[in-house]
Structure formats: C-alpha cells, structure tokens
Specification:
Radius of gyration: 18 Å
Shape: flat
Number of domains: 2
Structural class: mainly alpha
Number of helices: 10
Strand content: under 5%
Length: 201
C-alpha cells in the first residue's frame, strides 16, 4: 500500500472519529475506529520526514499547519491539533538521527531543545496564571507558536484531562489555572460525548 493510500485511509478513519465526536449519541465504536488514524499519520509523517530531500522545508510546513490549526482551534473551541504532535515527533526524529549519525553537535541540539521546552512551558503557565484571561488562547495558539509540548494532543495536559486529574498532585505540579483549564477542556469535550470519560462536579 502506498503512502498516499495510507493517508487517505487515515483521513477516512479521522472523519469517522469526528462524526462521532460532533454528533452526540452516536456509538462509541466510531471513536475506536477513529483512533486508528493517529498511528497511520505518525507513520506517514515519520517515513516522509526520514526520506525527504529537504527536512527544513518539511518542518516549516508542519509548523505553519500547526499554527493555522491553532487559530481554528481557538476560533471553534476544539481540542484537536495533531499537526503539533507531528511537528514535535519530527523534531525528536531529527535529534535521534543526529545521535545515530554521531553528530558532534548532538548534545548542543539536545540541550537547546530541552531548555526551550522548559522555558516556553514555564512562559505558558505564567501567561495562564497572570496575563491572559483566556487560558485556551495560551493552550491552543501560544503553545503552537512556541512549538512546545504544552497541551500537546496526547501530552500531559490532555492525559490528565482524559483521566479527570485536575486535583492534587497535578494541581501542585502545574498551577491552579492550568488545572481549571483541564477541567474546562473536559467540559468542552464532555458536551460532545467525546474524549473525557470523567466529568467534574
């Protein structure tokens, strides 16, 4: 099966998942089918990034797509932006390739990546706590702008939100506003009968 056919198949699975997401009362197995789209997209992106002749252009396209999707996220208040996940995966693949090729700059690249992640996540938390009245703007757009893993689909915020973890110890590790934001995301998806299985009082 060609990569184009895989992408079409993944799009079909994603469409089925979103139909179950946005139309309440549909069978839960639509989401089971839809979950097959993510690993297929990840495989296609990793494969394409590995063999592309211009990795920089590939990353730029994913980054721009993640920003466009972040604007749509904030405008429509939806939690999904898988372009951010694909962008982060390709960055990690780039680091792994650097290590496997025994690049002398690997440690430097790794330190830059980790330092930027820590600093940008800290900035996002501060912005949520102090500056922006809308935490979703930070979670969706600012995080995508920074290219960090904060609120990444499948990341810490979403995993905590999925399991309904918006109380200690998460509250002490992150922040009160972030915990409230996870609860807000939980209510948004809960109203569509989608991702979060635990509701807050």
């Amino acid at each position: 099966m060609s990569s184009n056919m895989l992408k079409i198949l993944a799009l079909l699975f994603m469409l089925i998942d979103h139909i179950g997401d946005f139309i309440p009362g549909l069978p839960v197995y639509l989401h089971w089918i839809g979950r097959l789209s993510a690993p297929i997209f990840i495989f296609c992106s990793a494969w394409g990034f590995t063999y592309t002749s211009n990795k920089k252009s590939y990353l730029i396209r994913l980054y721009v797509a993640s920003l466009v999707m972040a604007i749509i996220q904030y405008w429509l208040v939806i939690p999904n932006n898988f372009f951010r996940t694909l962008f982060s995966i390709c960055i990690i693949i780039l680091l792994i390739d650097s290590y496997r090729n025994k690049d002398e700059q690997f440690k430097k690249y790794l330190c830059i990546f980790l330092t930027w992640q820590i600093i940008s996540v800290a900035i996002c938390i501060v912005l949520i706590d102090i500056v922006f009245p809308s935490s979703l703007f930070v979670l969706y757009f600012i995080s995508a702008l920074f290219g960090n893993v904060f609120s990444l689909e499948g990341g810490l915020v979403y995993v905590c939100g999925y399991f309904g973890v918006a109380e200690p110890p998460i509250r002490s590790v992150l922040s009160r506003s972030l915990a409230e934001t996870m609860a807000q995301l939980q209510r948004i998806d809960g109203s569509r009968g989608a991702y979060y299985s635990v509701s807050r009082n």
